[in-house]
Amino acid sequence: MRTDRSIIYHIYPLGFCAVEPRNSFTTNPVNRISKIENWLPHIKSMGCDTLLLGPVWEASAHGYDTADFFHLDRRLGSNEDFKAVAKAVHATGMNLVLDGVFNHVGRDFWAFRDVIEKRENSPYKDWFTINFSLNNGFNDGLCYDAWEGCEDLVALNLSNAAVRRHLLDAVRFWIETFDIDGLRLDVAYCLNMDFMRELRDFTATLKPGFWLLGEVIKANYRRWLRPGLVDSVTNYECWKGLWSSCNTHNMFEIAHSLDRQFAEDGPGIYRSWRLYNFADNHDVSRLASKLKDSRHLPLVYTLLYTMPGIPSLYYGSEWGVPGRKNRGDGDLRRSLELLPDNALTNVLRRLSELRSRFPSLVDAPYHRSELGNEFLSFFRDNLFIAVNIGAEPVELTAPFGRLTVVPFSAAVFEPNGNCLFSVENFLL
Questions:
Q1: From CA 39, how far away is CA 337, in angstroms rounded?
Q2: What is the pLDDT of residues 75-88, one digit of tens each?
Q3: Taking a C-beta distance cutoff of 8 angstroms, is the pair 160, 109 a contact?
């Protein structure tokens, strides 16, 4: 899978397909996953070449509480149903990436249930880190390591060879059966580094070019961006800067992050890596709800699509669908039907076409030009990008002379002054 030119479309299937909140594990599979097939023409029309699906493996509730690594969640359908979806995705020419949850499992995971039943006599007791002399909130008569203290999510002992073998067997199954092209490693910041190296070697041998994305939130990304580990990490630093700079009218924030991460003539500590850039996802408020002024929506996306890295689009956000984290995860992961095109979808299509036409937006170094509280301009090779988030015009120096950038606008220019893209007076 070649990701350096990718635009990724991200769906959280359990919400998208409106499944029951909890899995009964007693009903027959219900084919809801095929809903994705109806969206593929739209996803392609947005210029996306990779589909990233949130957790689809059999789970207890939200998907990050795996019960079985080898079966599609019955609330989404059967393995055969998913095979049809995978085939349809690949038929469009898109890559397919799944969410790999390997740090922990749910309490319904079969090996953990065996431990609850047989305690010290379970052959799987060492698959977890368990203390049989203490108790937990479920009154199991034992306690165990859990992800960030959440006892619904039982930490796996990734130092155990049998656990690693089980997980790698599952990865082999999804590659060989569904031809998946990559994995997003949930909470990669918690994962055993030796396991990640083994996974990297295993997948590279099984399917050359297999892509690994690590979920990293607050850390120095260099720990994971090393040969033999992952190909990319979630760029939470710039996620925050993109919306916060607009809300506070302080473009110095996002400019600082772009300089620190990518500048050819500055620190640029990640300039040789394609970071995974996003404006929202299944864990954070949607951009339309995060921004104080909706006129900033296309300006944030202009930055997202013209800055170094791999842009990602979270389903529904191309229409400006709202969603607030303080209302619960369900507000971020709702079921949606296809909506008519609007001003924002048209802007995003134009931006994706621009990236496709001009490789410098993917490959070229980042050089900052001018910066103020409400404006930022920069170069990607010979392309000049200018963004004005304020209510007053600004005068900037461009390669072709002085340029007036009108309020609430963004534009991309060639050296001769030809405007390749512009957006202003945006109304959603």
A1: 9
A2: 999 999 999 999 99
A3: no
Report DSSP letters for 118-140, one per residue.
Answer: HGGG-TTGGGB-EETTS--TT--
- C-alpha neighbours within 13 Å on the C-beta side of residue 305: 30
Angle at Cα 295 formed by Cα 292 and Cα 300, nearest 5°?
85
Sequence length of the chain is: 428
Digit-coded pLDDT (tens) for 23-46 = 999 999 999 999 999 999 999 999
User: Is the pLDDT at 1 greater than 80, yes or no?
Assistant: no
**For residue 4, what pLDDT is reported?**
67
In angstroms, rounded to a whole number, what is the distance separating the alpha carbons of residues 63 and 15? Answer: 10
Residue 145 CB burial class (10 angstroms; 0-12, 13-18, ≥19):
middle
Q: What is the separation of C-alpha 199 from the centre of its chain, rounded to a whole number of angstroms?
A: 20
The residue with tokens 């947005």 is 46
Reference 288, options 44, 74, 220, 280; nearest CA is 280
H or E stretch at 260? helix 252-262
CA geometry: angle at 387 spanning 382 and 388, to 5°?
145
Judged against a pLDDT cut of 70, whether residue 3 lies above it is answered with no
Please spell the DSSP secondary structure of 326-361, one letter per residue.
GG-HHHHS---------HHHHHHHHHHHHHHH-THH
Take residue 410 and report the two structure tokens written for it.
């963004």
pLDDT in tens, 348-400: 999 999 999 999 999 999 999 999 999 999 999 999 999 999 999 999 999 99
The token pair at 100 is 């790999």
Strand 276-278 to 310-314 pairing: parallel
CA dihedral 346, 350, 356, 357 (to 10 degrees): 150
DSSP state of 209: T
Max intra-chain CA distance, the chain: 78
* pLDDT value at residue 219: 80
Alpha-carbon span 53 to 340, nearest angstrom: 23
CA atoms of 212 and 235, how far apart (whole Å)? 14
Residue corresponding to tokens 């619960």: 328
pLDDT per residue as tens digits for the range 251-273: 999 999 999 999 998 899 999 99
